[in-house]
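Worked example 2:
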Amino acid sequence: MYIELLNLLEAARALRQRKISSVELTRSALDRISELNPALNAFITVTGDRALEQARNADDELAGGIYRGLLHGIPIAHKDCFATAGIRTTGGSKILANRIPNHDATVVTKLDQAGAVMLGKTNLHELCYGITSTNPHFGAVHNPWDPERIPGGSSGGSAAAVAAGLVFAASGTDTGGSIRVPASFSGVVGLKPTYGVVSRRGLLPLGITLDHVGPIASTVRGVEACFRAMAPHVLNVEREPNRDGMKGLRIGVPENFFFERLAPEVMAAVRKAVQTAAALGASVREVRVPGMEELNTIGRMILLAEAASIWKARLDRPQDFGSDVATALQKGLEISAADYLDAQRQRRGIFRMLDPLWTEIDCLFTPATPATAPKIGDTTIRIGGVEEDVRVGSTRLVRPFNVIGWPALAMPCGFSEAGLPIGLQIVAAPRNEEALFQAGAALEYALGFSQRESPIS
């Protein structure tokens, strides 16, 4: 039984039933990393010896009747921006290439306590500041569906590792779409929880009022299992997918902004997902979601200022940064305090304006990205005759929800004619991640795309 043949819940069940051991799963995963990582470049650091020790401990505990939950004995990875004691944490950066923390990030601790087996640290866009994961210091991450294309970023290594079946799940961060863009481009499921629900302690920061921590897995229920282990206020309860999960849910489909300038294949796949939700018993209605253009502008300004504030002491050596990151950090120094504070004021105003939406609906359905994954090295994308910067274009449908902190899930809802994944974004009210899991799992079961394997796997 090999890692690529199971999803997280199936592996957890097999472990509990003693049909497979954690050591067997871990060895299988390490073998796949050895075989496929040279082509994918999804990992910066592999911790094989440590992983096998954790796996042996998990097997001993399970044999002794100790059960820590769905992640017990499950091979995972962490994005290389989370502190790991005694293991280098590079942030994908030259200036931190040899940094070895003496403590674990809270998320690392939580998943350790849940019994997960850490196989290593995944590659990422430098300092989490970008959406391509084309890293000038550690090399580009390649998309398992087409190695000539980006996997998305900044959590590109985590998404690629899950999509290729190297691990069952991986941690990620999302400051302007950095979990949901990779999930969309790489054909996996990614959750950006409500702002602050998952601890950021031990995370290499980028935008302190925008950073979110969340999981990536191959299925909605796999993501849910990781979230419940990461978040301190919810229980890690196993639940089978609810085939009637859409019944009674009120789904909103934006009549503005989100369906403008989309690739035709993305439009068709998302519309089909909406129709499927209705067929499953959800009530669907069009809603107006104002302020999205403004939130994109506000979010970019806030991030420029906050990132520059964090890294300004290092900017006396701009050559130590990749050119895109150095340019963004320098630009952030030009944001005045007055402009930053005004952006924060506008942010609060739009949040208050949008909050009544949740009296009308339970979930919002939108595309996750306006197109499928661009090729490595592309700096622009053309959609509907309009050419956009890759970063701006790829994040314009997801960034608003970082600014207002609402939880959002990205999941596969189709494939292009070229065989590239298309992502759906489901958004819910603050602290209502349960609605995302309910809607996402029911839709995932109906659409069946979670069973489709990437070519490189």
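Residues 308 and 333 are 6 Å apart (CA to CA). The chain has three domains: 6-230, 250-289+356-451, 295-342.
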